[in-house]
Amino acid sequence: MFSKFTAAASIVVACYGKTVSVSDFGAVGDGKVMNTKAFRSAASSLTEGGTLIVPSGQFLTGPFNLTSGTTLEVQGVVLGAQDMNEYPIIAPLPSYGISRDFDVYTRYQALVMTYNATNITIKGSSPTAAIDGQGSYWWKLRKSQSLQHGRPRLVELMGTKNITVTGIQLRDPGFWNLHPIYCEDVHIFNVNFSAPSSSPNTDGIDPDSSKNVLIEYNTFSVGDDMIAIKSGIDQYGREVNVPSENIIIRHNVMHAGHGVAIGSEVSGGVQNVHIYNNTIYGPAASALRIKTAPSRGGFIRNVLYENITIMDASTILGLSTVYKSSAPPAPVLTDIFNISYKSISRPAGSSGGHAGYFTCFEKPAVGCRNLQFEDIDIQGTTDGWSCQNVNSSVVHDVQPTGLSKCLSDS
């Protein structure tokens, strides 16, 4: 699937696309001149199959949009403006109903955005190629409670099909780094995601109500979840009712961050997820975590974690249904079914932390059903297992011991 659409997009560009540089429209790459007008003019000049070049240098700009069939090729650095007046104020996403940033309604537009587009490529073509949100500006405003609108994502791809993001650094977003929402056929590879470990809500990738997503060979060191699979929140997510599904996460290297998560925004459902052959060096808050809340509803099902090595993490495996939320409970609580952990290891020499917790909804909810654990070897933990309201499970060859009893007694 992925090789097919990537090859097709390359042929289209070669045949009839024109190439323009932001410099052709007056952009100056000194890191000082504001180039928003040049970026928008250059991007809007492209027809399908065109390429927008950001040459060597540091190009300061406000938000701009990419249209169908276009490629953003970064050779230098795209710098996000540290001026809220450069950022259009836009409506919340339909499946969120709010900005998702401290629960204000409207939000600032992402630095790079697509809307209802097809065949989009964002790529770097030099070792230093980057899109840099200069997020410290936004983090300080958030800390001082000086914002009336939600902080901007770095890159948001909305309602877009056939996406490739590769060979680039995405760093220091105001909010999340890369947010594909309502998208199909997404390939993200060889991307470096970075933000200070103390930076708020600087997730790496948030696949959201999207399907056929392949995330591979990336590196992460961020201030929140490295990857968080989502599908909208509470009543808004249930009304839109678009799941995230058919997602593969493999061959990634993860350093600082909160781990690989599903949730907590799962109101449209999450299903058919395979997370395998990844290494989490940490420090990570919770290496592999599923999180939801009574207000969410939706479902989480058919998830396989396989062949994952974890080093420094406060918690290795986590599943919680009590994530913070002030909204009323959903008519039907999140259905959690068929979650498998296979060949998960933490080598000797690692120390501290919690092996895992599984906190499911209390009766009369059905709890978590069909949790499976096989070939789990977690060394050096301070705390073992904790379990609540697990309905059914299978355990085979798990260290530390005690998981089978913990689950059966829950």
Topology of helices and strands:
Layout: H1 2-16, E1 19-21, E2 30-34, H2 36-44, E3 51-54, E4 58-61, E5 64-66, E6 71-74, E7 77-80, E8 89-90, E9 107-108, E10 112-115, E11 118-124, E12 130-132, H3 136-143, E13 155-158, E14 161-166, E15 169-171, E16 178-181, E17 184-189, E18 192-194, E19 211-216, E20 219-221, E21 227-229, H4 234-240, E22 244-250, E23 253-254, E24 260-262, E25 270-276, E26 279-280, E27 284-291, E28 299-310, E29 313-320, E30 335-346, E31 354-359, E32 368-378, E33 383-388, E34 393-399, H5 403-408
Strand content: 35-45%
State the end-to-end CA separation: 42 Å
Taking all residues together, what is the mean pLDDT?
A: 94
Alpha-beta content class: mainly beta
Quaternary form? single chain
State the helix count: 5
Helical fraction = 10-25%
Unreliable parts = 1-15
Q: From the alpha-carbon coordinates, what is the Rg to the nearest angstrom?
A: 21 Å
Structure summary, number of beta strands: 34
Query: Quick one: biggest sheet?
Result: 22 strands, parallel
What is the molecular shape?
Answer: globular
Description:
This protein is mainly beta. The two termini are 42 Å apart. The strands form 4 sheets. The chain has a 22-stranded parallel sheet that branches. A 6-stranded parallel sheet has the order 21-24-27-29-31-33. The chain has a 4-stranded parallel sheet with strand order 5-10-13-16. The longest helix is centred in the N-terminal third of the chain and has 15 residues, at 2-16. The chain is 11% helix and 42% strand. It is built from 5 helices and 34 strands. The model is unreliable at 1-15 (pLDDT under 50).
